[in-house]
């Protein structure tokens, strides 16, 4: 499944389900007089906003390369992930602020049977959405869809706070606020992971050892001589991957022969690994200053 289709599918389902959950939780909160449940309803609605960002990012990232963006627009997906991380951070901050306020005012949650049922439904539904997003994200390789999955899970955790509060609030008036702070820290951590994954790809990556070994093995199928491939760098544009590395060839090879060797390797890596590769050629005895 391609990234655009996965993002559109997950985002559309998320918007429909979250809007329905928002209406249900808001109604239950008003009927039961639960401020926490009403706040959690708005938290759920924020997931719909996040899903709109997913769809918007997928549409932009699917645009083909042009003269101004020769590597395509795939990194819009990373921008979308950063926006989702920011939204998660804002939500976590609001949770912490509200929790501290409740502790200072010694306010406890006011829940009824209706709130209990709706909260359980919310937890189960949101975790199902999270698992679905993780599945599509893994299948399509979309970091934005995975990020939206974390957003679903944080909403399930926030509903879990309310559920725990319902069960033990008669013994610990402060339990809702304390659990709110703990889950807020978990949300911050999820936002941090999403942000760091996106930033890591934007800044540039070193290919994993498994990929490097696969590249070396493929080169060995073309040339018996050891070309000493080294200085690997990969640029992840999401919709395409740009690889650069160096090889060393015999000093007596002509420029034309060296170009033919590099070109044949580039074509092989494009065919086998879908990598657009640029190879720098060096004399066999050349050494970098930092070698």
Strand pairing plus helix content: what structural class?
mainly alpha
β-strand number: 3
Helix content: 55-70%
Termini separation: 42 Å
- Into which percentage range does the β-strand content fall? 5-15%
Radius of gyration: 26 Å
Instruction: Report the biggest beta sheet as strand number plus sense, adding barrel if it closes.
Output: 3 strands, mixed
Strand order of the largest sheet: 1-2-3
Average pLDDT for all residues: 76
Approximate shape: elongated
The H/E string reads HHHHHHHEEHE
Count, helices: 8
Provide the low-confidence segments as ranges.
none
In a nutshell, what does this entry contain?
This protein has 291 residues and is mostly helical.
Question: Can you tell me about this structure?
Answer:
The protein contains eight helices and three strands; from the N terminus they run H-H-H-H-H-H-H-E-E-H-E. It has helices at 3-32, 35-61, 76-105, 113-140, 143-168, 175-203, 209-222, 255-273, and strands at residues 230-236, 241-249, 276-283. It has a three-stranded mixed β-sheet with strand order 1-2-3. It is elongated. The two termini are 42 Å apart. The mean pLDDT is 76.
């Amino acid at each position: 499944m391609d990234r655009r289709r996965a993002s559109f599918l997950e985002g559309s389902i998320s918007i429909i389900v979250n809007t329905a959950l928002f209406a249900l939780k808001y109604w239950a909160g008003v009927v039961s007089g639960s401020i926490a449940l009403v706040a959690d309803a708005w938290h759920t609605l924020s997931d719909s906003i996040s899903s709109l960002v997913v769809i918007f990012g997928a549409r932009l990232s699917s645009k083909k390369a042009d003269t101004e963006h020769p590597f395509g627009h795939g990194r819009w997906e990373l921008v979308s992930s950063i926006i989702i991380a920011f939204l998660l951070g804002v939500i976590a901050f609001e949770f912490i602020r509200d929790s501290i306020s409740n502790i200072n005012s010694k306010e406890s949650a006011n829940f009824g049977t209706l709130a209990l049922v709706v909260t359980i439904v919310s937890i189960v539904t949101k975790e199902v959405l999270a698992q679905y997003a993780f599945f599509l994200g893994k299948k399509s390789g979309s970091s934005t869809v995975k990020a939206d999955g974390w957003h679903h899970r944080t909403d399930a955790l926030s509903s879990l706070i309310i559920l725990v509060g319902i069960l033990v609030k008669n013994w610990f008036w402060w339990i809702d606020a304390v659990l709110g702070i703990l889950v807020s820290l978990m949300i911050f951590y999820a936002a941090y992971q999403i942000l760091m994954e996106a930033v890591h790809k934007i800044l540039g990556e070193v290919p994993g050892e498994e990929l490097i070994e696969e590249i070396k093995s493929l080169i060995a199928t073309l040339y018996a001589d050891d070309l000493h491939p080294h200085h690997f760098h990969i640029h992840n544009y999401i919709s395409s991957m740009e690889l650069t590395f160096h090889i060393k060839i015999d000093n007596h090879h002509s420029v034309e022969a060296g170009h033919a060797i590099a070109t044949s390797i580039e074509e092989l890596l494009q065919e086998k690994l879908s990598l657009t590769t640029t190879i720098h050629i060096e004399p066999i005895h050349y050494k970098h200053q930092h070698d």
